[in-house]
Design a protein that fits this description.
The protein is an alpha/beta fold. It has a single domain, classed as Zn-dependent exopeptidases (Aminopeptidase, 3-Layer(aba) Sandwich), CATH 3.40.630.40. Helices cover 29% and strands 18% of the residues. Strands 1-3-2-6-9-7-8 form a 7-stranded mixed beta sheet, sandwiched between helices. It has a two-stranded parallel ribbon with strand order 4-5. Strand 2, helix 1 and strand 3 form a beta-alpha-beta unit. Helix 3 runs antiparallel to helix 5. The longest helix is centred in the middle third of the chain and has 27 residues.
Length: 239
């Protein structure tokens, strides 16, 4: 299966998408799981979500197999930051000796099923609660002088009240930026609507991982507890 769906026992209007933590690679491809800028261990940081009522959709395959947070409208194969299938890693190093021949197959196998299941999950949530809040969860190495960056595509994907709630909650423990660099990719843009408020949440690696990107450290559990408590506060405010 290209994704894992972890259903909340007592669901709420909140849904989480974790598209870049997977590390599986299909047979016949290079070891893409070793390339930089995966969202290292972000799925583990948020593994409490189903216990607080947040159904979670998590990709199982590496973002270098196909990047679920990129649009199909442009070139499928090309730049790491804009294309669904990257020609280079995030540092500009070429991945393949020649362009792969399985581009459309990867879209069908990995990209389409994820977005289809996310769309179904959103529809189910809206039918049950009348609205949904989708959190698209990521991490980053640098580029922003903050611990967490929130993005709503510069106001396009959620109302100010929603992003203000997240900003106020996370600011109790973290330095928080809004729409500075990581303003939001395809997932929040594709799935927002009048009934669906979507927000991208980016976490700097160094707030929850050691220098070797290991989660076996005290700040991992401390950060996880802070995030959990603040999300619970947000969920109570939204109702």
């Amino acid at each position: 299966m290209s994704f894992t769906l972890i259903t909340a026992g007592n669901p709420t209007p909140f849904i989480a998408s974790i598209p870049h933590a997977g590390l599986l690679v299909p047979e016949g491809l290079p070891d893409l799981s070793k390339l930089p800028n995966h969202d290292w261990h972000i799925d583990k940081l948020y593994d409490f979500l189903p216990s607080i009522g947040v159904t979670t959709l998590k990709a199982n395959y590496s973002r270098y197999v196909v990047d679920l947070n990129r649009s199909l409208a442009g070139s499928i194969y090309g730049d790491f930051y804009t294309s669904c299938i990257a020609e280079t890693d995030s540092h500009g190093n070429k991945i393949y000796d020649e362009p792969p021949a399985d581009l459309q197959s990867r879209i069908r196998k990995y990209y389409d099923p994820y977005h289809q299941r996310l769309n179904e999950l959103i529809s189910e949530t809206v039918n049950q609660f009348g609205f949904a809040v989708l959190m698209d969860i990521h991490s980053f190495a640098g580029g922003v002088d903050a611990d967490i960056e929130l993005g709503n595509a510069n106001g396009m994907t959620c109302i100010p009240e929603i992003i203000d709630m997240f900003h106020g909650a996370f600011s109790k423990y973290f330095e928080v930026a809004v729409n500075e660099k990581y303003v939001g990719g395809q997932i929040i843009r594709k799935h927002c609507s009048d009934e669906v408020q979507t927000i991208q949440i980016e976490h700097c690696y160094n707030i929850y991982l050691d220098d070797d990107l290991s989660p076996e450290c005290e700040k991992f559990s401390v950060t996880q507890e802070h995030i959990k408590n603040e999300l619970l506060d947000i969920m109570r405010m939204v109702g």
